[in-house]
Amino acid sequence: MEREKNANLKRIQEANRILAQTAQKKQASLGQLNVIKEKINVQKGVIKNISSEIVYLNRDLRTTEEKVAQAQSDLQRLKREYARLIYAASKTANSYNKLMFLFASDSFNQMMRRMRYLRHYTEARKQQAAAIESVQQNLSSQLNTLTSQKQQKKSLLNVQLKENQNLVSMHDQQDQVIQQLSLQEQSLKQEVEQRQKAVRQLDKLIAAIVREEIARAARAAEAAARAKAAREAAARAAAAKAGKPAPETATGAAESAPARAKTTVSRTDRVTLTPEAAALSSNFANNKGRFSWPVERGFISQRFGRQAHPVLKGVVVENRGIDIQTGANEKVRAIFGGKVLAVHTIPGMNNIVMVQHGEYFTVYAKLRSVSVTEGQEITTKQTIGTVYTDAEGTSELQFQIWKNQTNLNPQGWLLPK
Description:
Mean pLDDT: 80
Radius of gyration: 39 Å
Largest sheet: 10 strands, antiparallel
Number of strands: 12
Helix content: 55-70%
Low-confidence stretches: 251-265
Strand content: 15-25%
Order of helices and strands: HHHHHHHEEEEEEEEEEEE
Structural class: alpha+beta
Number of helices: 7
């Protein structure tokens, strides 16, 4: 719970920092709305965390109250037993009575037993007194714990009340921003149209790059296969000239180069992988759910797939990846090592970097600057550029993951926040 509380506190601090940047503009923006929504989600987590603490504290309170009741019961019982011992001891309080009790014995053995009885009786009184003192100390400790827990519960309830008030205030702030944005309906529709146009252009660009890479890899694989077949044919010809048996091919039989060349036809819907690329692709797939975020700080402002517009009713926005809202000039990092396949610019998406990881591709759009070049081999977490900040003060990265020509939800590949 403490870790979750600290994580929520950190997320709220990040959201406040991002909101401060977007709020510098007088006009309300979707960026502001996204940050407020993020704060509301985190605030709900804070309240849920406090509620869980109260539940556990109530359980501890019940346990402590049961211990206090048990200690009080034990104390009363011990006091009653001690009172009986004191009453019995008062009858033999002087030395004369003790001596008479011993000399009244019928035998020496009985006198010894009576002596042991008196010693044990005295010892029992001491033990009973010590037990009473121990129970009293335990009771005092439990009462202090109970008092502390009640104070803690009272404090938590006050904090919960305050956080609920903060949540109401955030909802009011959200309603105000939505109301302001509703007055900008025409500009918002234009913004949606421009975004969707940019998305379509980006989709076409990615599809073209992937198709070209699939074709290039297929040509390279076929060229490699023809070269290998030529080498094997030359080896067989040399062996035949020397009168030696023809060497076996990789398939275990001597076959002609044309026959083998026909078996090297590559699929046109996926990248033909070399052994090195296959290993890279496998490593990428095995790290699903464990990738670091492409920016160090930020939150998902728009999720993958078809999403309802936060303001415009009946308008649905298609997202091929996720939008991550962050701070101005935030560095963008590669989530995994690979080769920079393309660097392009599209209006509405700004600079774009596409990185290949075997048959997987990661796309980083809405970059203000780019620090890598096409064909460059890069490593995990290497900086590839900085995020772009629009005229409304919103700094947002568009991040996508593809497997060949299939679009994947990036959120399931990144570490949870």
